[in-house]
Recover the amino acids of this structure.
């Protein structure tokens, strides 16, 4: 019987030296960066198995372009080359390529493996996050019984202007982000018989305990009594009751209140609008938005966040049973609006409608971000790597794109014109229906627009919607999407220099009139200013 390798990922300011025979070593970077790296900078990780002549020969082998990896000494010392080209909508760090390469260069059974990333300092956060994604935690294989701790040691060699080793603060930032990404992956990878709403709440309580925060929970019938018709209507048929769970960080000198609202559908059968046998597997991932927000909140607070920050998690299992919501039912939401249900499989917007209304009414949020695995149409709109965003604020749109390019959690904007499209939800008997009349009319955008209608198109603050239905996973594994994105986007409020240094300019004060017209003000750092050919 095999060994169960419980993996620990450690980041180092100065990676300990080691013999590749005992500790396999992988050195990865863009070719231009590898060429700038002298053998003396990495010899302590390769000696005595690799000499300078072999190192130079390895780089020359990569320059031929026949392969992206080159063995320096058996399979224990390997040189890896990241892609040279990256178009303007891809991250300059090539972080997705790094995750794939790390996965391909793992050595089964090795107790320690060193990964040395050669890069520009400004790309360290994206690439550190990329390495973290390659080591998800969740595993339930019956063929493994012996617990062994496998340690992944991660170090950086910097090129460019600032080649100093990572500071203690930067190491802490990478460590906490790694923990958050892997927690997010764990929640999304776990099946609903474990990660039901009660199981998710236990994860929230664990995070709250680490942060010294007491969670606020409204659960089950209390949701109905307090007017949360969206969350209650979706989850009332499940064995484990639905819940609204809120974590709040309120530093005394804060002047801005930010709410991150997450869709936490722990399983989506489609309800009475039942999914097919091929369309249902994988719906354990429908809690990816709430999982990402929980992880992002943990990182933000752990590293020091100067403003009020709330994580609002809308948890429910969209199940089938005698009391399940029926098509034609009408529910009253926390916003006070009534919704005629014409598709029980359009449930994510229902729980988020309550969540964003709570953020406005009870939390008095100046900025509301909702994140969700909302629509399968997101994959058609922006693909498997880019989340789809829509916002009532042009500066937020551009800053979010900048943050995505910087950290590797990519996004791309949808249109924003509610006056043209909200009629898709017209109902003869309620304020609105929950699914569009014409599914060929900007479907992902309209789904987000439904959520915005419960925040209110008159909302005077900044609203950002992130649909990440496809970036939430790759193959059969969760990616931890959202943790790096939110912490980079709001990094200007972080006490950690690694985040504040890479954060885009972000003005979270009122920038819109009537919640419809976009701001004409440009952020100081926009995606156009990034050098995508570096």
């Amino acid at each position: 019987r095999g060994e169960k390798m419980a993996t620990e990922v450690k980041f180092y300011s100065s990676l300990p030296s080691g013999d590749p025979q005992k500790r396999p070593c992988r050195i990865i970077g863009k070719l231009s960066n590898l060429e700038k790296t002298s053998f003396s900078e990495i010899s302590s990780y390769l000696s005595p198995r690799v000499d300078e002549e072999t190192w130079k020969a390895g780089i020359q082998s990569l320059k031929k372009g026949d392969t992206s990896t080159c063995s320096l000494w058996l399979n224990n010392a390997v040189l890896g080359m990241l892609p040279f080209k990256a178009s303007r909508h891809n991250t300059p760090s090539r972080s997705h390529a790094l995750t794939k390469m790390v996965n391909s260069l793992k050595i089964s059974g090795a107790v320690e493996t060193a990964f040395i990333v050669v890069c520009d300092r400004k790309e360290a956060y994206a690439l550190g996050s990329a390495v973290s994604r390659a080591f998800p935690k969740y595993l339930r294989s019956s063929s493994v019984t012996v617990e062994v701790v496998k340690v992944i040691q991660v170090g950086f060699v910097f090129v460019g202007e600032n080649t100093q080793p990572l500071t203690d603060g930067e190491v802490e930032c990478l460590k906490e982000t790694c923990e958050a990404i892997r927690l997010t992956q764990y929640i999304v990878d776990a099946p609903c018989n474990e990660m039901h709403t009660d199981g998710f709440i236990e994860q929230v309580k664990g995070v709250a305990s680490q942060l010294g925060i007491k969670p606020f929970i409204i659960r089950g019938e209390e949701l109905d009594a307090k007017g949360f018709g969206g969350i209650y209507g979706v989850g009332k048929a499940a064995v484990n009751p639905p819940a609204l769970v809120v974590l709040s960080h309120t530093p005394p000198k804060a002047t801005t209140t930010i709410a991150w609202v997450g869709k936490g559908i722990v399983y989506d059968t489609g309800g009475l609008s039942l999914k097919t046998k091929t369309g249902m597997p994988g719906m354990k991932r429908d809690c990816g938005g709430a999982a990402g927000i929980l992880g992002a909140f943990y990182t933000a607070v752990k590293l020091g966040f100067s403003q009020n920050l709330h994580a609002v998690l809308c948890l429910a299992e969209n199940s089938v049973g005698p009391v399940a919501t029926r098509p034609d039912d009408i529910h009253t939401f926390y916003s006070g609006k009534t919704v005629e249900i014409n598709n029980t499989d359009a449930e994510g917007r229902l729980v988020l409608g309550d969540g964003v209304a709570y953020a406005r009414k009870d939390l008095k949020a100046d900025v509301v971000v909702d994140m969700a695995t909302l629509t399968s149409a997101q994959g058609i709109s922006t693909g498997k790597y880019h989340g789809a965003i829509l916002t009532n604020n042009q500066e937020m749109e551009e800053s979010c794109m900048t943050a995505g390019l910087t950290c590797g959690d990519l996004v791309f904007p949808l249109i924003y014109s509610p006056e043209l499209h909200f009629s898709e939800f017209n109902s003869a008997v309620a304020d609105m229906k929950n699914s569009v009349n014409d599914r060929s009319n900007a479907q992902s955008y309209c789904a987000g627009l439904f959520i915005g209608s419960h925040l209110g198109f008159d909302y005077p603050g900044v609203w950002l919607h992130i649909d990440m239905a496809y970036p939430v996973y790759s193959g059969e594994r969760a990616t931890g999407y959202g943790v790096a994105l939110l912490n980079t986007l709001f990094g200007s409020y972080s006490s950690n220099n690694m985040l504040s240094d890479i954060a885009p300019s972000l003005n979270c004060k009122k920038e819109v009139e009537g919640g419809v017209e976009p701001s004409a003000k440009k952020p100081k750092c926009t995606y156009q200013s990034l050098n995508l050919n570096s």
Observations:
- Residues 510-534 have pLDDT under 50 and may be disordered.
- The radius of gyration is 24 Å.
- DSSP finds 17 helices and 19 strands in the chain.
- The longest strand covers residues 144-159.
